[in-house]
Amino acid sequence: MRIVTNSLQFRLISAFCLISILPLVFINLMSYYNTTGIVQENTDELAEVNLVQTDKSVRSTLAAYEDLLFQLYTGDDIVNDVDELNAGGNEALAVNQLRRTLRGIANIKDSIQCITIITESGDIIFYDKPTASSIKNSWLDTMNLTSEELYDKISNENSTQYITTRYASSFSAKPYYLFHLAHRIVDYNSIHRQLGVIIISIDERLLHEVCNQNSVDGDDTLPGNVNFIVDDEGRLVTFPVQRSIENTVLPIPESENGWRESYGELIEGSGLMDGDNFAIHSLRDDLLGWSFVNVSDQSVVFRQIEAQRNLMLLAVFLSVAFLIAVIILVTRHMTGSIKNIVAAMKKAGAGDLAVRVRRDRKMPSEMETITDQFNRMMGQMNKLVEEVKMVSARQKDAEITALEAQINPHFLYNTLDTINWMAINADQYEISSAIGALARILRYGIDKSNSIVTLREEMEWLQQYIFLQQTRLKNTFSYELDVPKELLDCKIHKLLFQPFVENAILHGFEGVRRHHILVVKVQKRQNGFLRIIVKDNGKGIQENKIQEIKSRLLDSGEKDHIGMNNAIERLRMYYGEEARFDIKSQVGEGTVVIIEIPGK
């Protein structure tokens, strides 16, 4: 089957593929990356919450041990017994009493493995729970400090000291890793007197269980999420793999990112997580001097997101394939209808205006609409062709009439000029002035009747027109023209407000016995518009007539106001919606016509 690349069907399928497939793929990919970003943000947020909660839990747990430590280093019995040892008194009695006190405190908490006292005189008294030995301490020899150095370090501070976890010893094949809380012994009768220090040694698994509360049996953490603690020197305070505690000292980096790299290497080296697709978050506790670290494996989540993305892409491609098949079936009927319409258009283009497209039931509704519009258009074209023929004939008649009419003004001017000289010869100068005014009025009105003139020219013509009307009516009215000199050069259309003046003279003064006054004013508004006011003190116009004039609905058969209607139409034609017209009248008082047009 040959594929026609410029056919409508091919173009529709191509356009559909471009418009739908590419955006869908783009949206799918954006959704994938957006989902990945949301998962990452949620993971970060949960990790931060996890670390804050872990920090609070560790502090709460350690607070209970700090309370025990406080009871020890402030207890009067211990202060007295240690003071006895430092003074060289009954050493055996003091040691036995101290061991008995230490054993009682150590058995309060299962995680306490040892309590040690180092006196000012250098004596070491302890209770060691794993070994139950009274001769050798299980952890003191594993420290990097001697007992004297350890004593100096603790006794120089007035706050609780936290000593990082170290390997202590093994008992019954079980290794013990201990971290320590230490404080100098305080005699409140002499606070600054150095008596000794007390050290509580606690099993590291306590911290591990608090940090990883989702652990199973305290050994295997939930897959994908691990918490541990590191001190400022890079030593592990607690870690899921205990053997790493003994051998690991992380290098001190120069930045936070350096710490993250060290944590990543530690996780990979310990075998807790496979691959490198895990997120690391940390929170420092300035009071403890420890950093809480959370490591979460994100590979499982990302694999699920990728599987969902691939499933969505497969669904998109299957849907597109189905839609392409539907398009092919639907466009067969559409393209057939289009071919019929195109054939009819070609006939119309060849001059056959009688051609029509036959409607088919299988046509899509859009094609039916196009068919109906085409047939209607062809009918209108036939009608327009006939109208054009009629208009052409009328235009020829009008041109002939216009040529004939060009002779009439010259004949009229020559005739008026002859009559004017006859009046002068008969000493009838008043008649001569009237004829001269009439000739100027006719010449001004006929010569380019729709042209634009200055306000000066329009006022001069209006004076001639009013003079002629005064002559005709035997000076029964007076008039006033009020036009500022600075407005005389403004441009307006010729004979713009003459109909309103004529209406005032011919109809406004009719039947009014008082002296008639006509006022024509021209003003310039702040917005640049010209305001033309034609005012008379005549009989006025009834309200219903005013409304008809304003809406241009006055019956054209009434001769009284035809000129005003025509003038309003001219205003609309010349100035469009910018022209403003208003008329105010009171029966028996007079009429005011207000016209506003753009000033030029």
**Could you give the distance between the termini?**
71 Å
* Class per helix and strand makeup: alpha+beta
Largest sheet: number of strands, sense, barrel closure:
5 strands, antiparallel
In CATH's first tier, which class of the domain at 451-598 applies?
A: Alpha Beta
What is the CA-based Rg, rounded? 56 Å
Going across the biggest sheet, name each strand in turn.
Answer: 2-1-5-4-3
Residue runs with pLDDT of under 50 for 5 or more positions: 215-222, 553-559
Give the overall form. elongated
The number of helical runs is 15
CATH H-tier superfamily of the domain at 451-598: Histidine kinase-like ATPase, C-terminal domain
As a percent range, the share of helical residues equals: 40-55%
| CATH architecture descriptor text of the domain at 451-598 | 2-Layer Sandwich
The tally of strands reads 16
Look at the structure and give the mean pLDDT: 79
Q: Could you tell me the strand content as a percent range?
A: 15-25%
* CATH fold title of the domain at 451-598: Heat Shock Protein 90
